[in-house]
Amino acid sequence: MQIINSSRKAYLTLQNLGQLEVEEFWILALHSNKRLMGKECVFRGTVDACPVFPRDVFRSACRWNASSIIIAHNHPSGDHQPSNDDIDLTLRLIKVGNILGIALVDHLIITKKRYWSFADRGLIKISEQNLAEHR
């Protein structure tokens, strides 16, 4: 039973993404105790883009009856910083997750040498607070 309770553990589960030459978008489905229930590549893109649709991300989460998810994608360019599109997508997935009752607990960007975590930078928590204020 693999417990994913930190960005480091999520990264270790998906670190091979950093070796790919095209972008892939993965989901880790978690039980309420953070036990990994399943992982899946839900989108495969090109060298510098990967279209992602919330319905497909949460279809996988619902299939596993997950209580929370971690999402991750790679940047073949080696730049681990999130793009504006990455930030916008994360905010959209937080909103959809709140509606469905499936928390987005982190979004990792993985490269060959490192990773970047939205949760570690406080951006997931900040976004959840902002959403609560707008309800």
Structural summary, described in words:
34% of the residues lie in helices and 25% in strands. Mean pLDDT is 91; it is low at 126-135. With 135 residues, the chain is of the alpha+beta class. The protein has a five-stranded mixed sheet, sandwiched between helices. β3 (68-74), α3 and β4 (103-110) form a beta-alpha-beta unit. The longest helix is centred in the last third of the chain and has 17 residues, at 84-100. The protein has four helices and five strands; from the N terminus they run αββαβαββα.
Write the layout of secondary structure elements.
Blueprint: H1 7-14, E1 24-30, E2 36-44, H2 54-63, E3 68-74, H3 84-100, E4 103-110, E5 115-117, H4 123-133
Short description:
With 135 residues, this protein is an alpha+beta fold. The protein contains 4 helices and 5 strands. Helices cover 34% and strands 25% of the residues.
Key features of this structure:
135 residues, alpha+beta, Cytidine Deaminase, domain 2, 5-stranded mixed β-sheet, 5 strands
Strand arrangement in the largest pleated sheet: 2-1-3-4-5
The CATH class is identified as Alpha Beta
Overall mean pLDDT stands at 91
Overall geometry: globular
Order of helices and strands: HEEHEHEEH
Q: How many helical stretches?
A: 4
How much of the sequence lies in strands comes to: 25-35%
Work out the count of structural domains. Answer: 1
Q: What structural category characterises the helix and strand content?
A: alpha+beta
